[in-house]
Design goal:
- The structure is a single chain.
- With 419 residues, the chain is an alpha+beta fold.
- It contains 8 helices and 12 strands.
- Helices cover 44% and strands 27% of the residues.
Amino acid sequence: MVRLIACIGLGAFLSAVVRPTYGDITVFSNAREKILTEIFNGYDGKIPPNYDNGNFFVQSMLHIRNYTNTPVKSSVQIYIIGIDSINEATMDFSMSFFVRQRWVDNRLNYTPTLNMSRLELDTKRMSNVWVPDLYFVNEKKADVHHVTVPNKLMHIYPDGLVVYSMRVTAVFSCTMDLQKYPLDDQKCYVVLESYGYSTETLVMRWHPNPVEKADNLQLPQFELQNITDYICDVTYAGVTYTCLKLELFLHRNLGYYIIQVYIPSFLIVILSWVSFWLNVDSTPARISLGLLTVLTMTTQSQGAKASLPRVSYIKAIDIWMSTCLLFVFAALIEFAYVNVLARVDQRKVNSVTSKLNEAKEDEEEKTQNQQSWCFTKLEDKERARMLDKISRAIFPAVFLVFNIIYWLVYVFWEPSPAA
């Protein structure tokens, strides 16, 4: 019994020491509200931090431009959640990411109490704080996520450091050079600028670790090989504005195109060569095979180019598809020529037969003429067969040479940037 009472008393004591009471929470909340009231008393979120609040309005009204001003230095970092799609037809890409900014606003200094390391603001309080007017230059469409609440974060530290983050999904334009498509590499950019503040008021610079990526970041058709950061301050109408740029180097994965484009078209070309092994008299079979391969090759060529923009220069896929179509069409033309030889031979046979019937020569002369006709027929047949035999060697050899040249050129050749 004594032990039980002792255990209950020890548990009550530890609970009182370790677990905060309702009164402690109230004290902490009151201290936080007091600090917020003090730092926002007289604070104007429309004025940048380093302006003199007393002189700014007077100098702006009098159009005095030689007032002293120290620009706000904002550190920018981007955390890439995912690159959703890269579209060659519209030349853009979609990306989801966090934009993180850090700057110092001395007007927000405060003395921490109760071991308070920072103030975490809600979205209503955030609207009262001045933030850099960052925007994306090459953005086509962008959204800040609002499910289930606005995806924004703002922390204020005792020394006035402000940490601001928001989650964005945006579509960025990306000018692509498709001369080597689909054996190409692309460089896409994300450009950030200040919209209204010049470098006299705001200077944005990259964080020491400018870009972070999610561990599971994967792209369906590309491999993100490298990300390079730049400082690209620009001048408009004599005023310099701060600018930051990210360069994303994307290497296209060839596996999809090998399976869906190159191998099928390669097999169609080989299929067109089957007609060279068919008898010259097999006209229906050779016509069906030739037309089937030509139509299939045309359909596949159109499908491979359907998702590409209508550019004026020649792409690698254009060279491949056009050459494959040329080979299957040449195989059809070869059959047409062989068929013409066979038809000429048939007309010779009919002509000889007609003359034999009209002249009604004796049996010996008729036999002699038939032997001569058989020799002529045998000679024409050999010419047609010889053409097929030559085609069996010439077509594969030329196609092999084309493949060697094609892959060597487009694997190792790099188009000039001016192109």
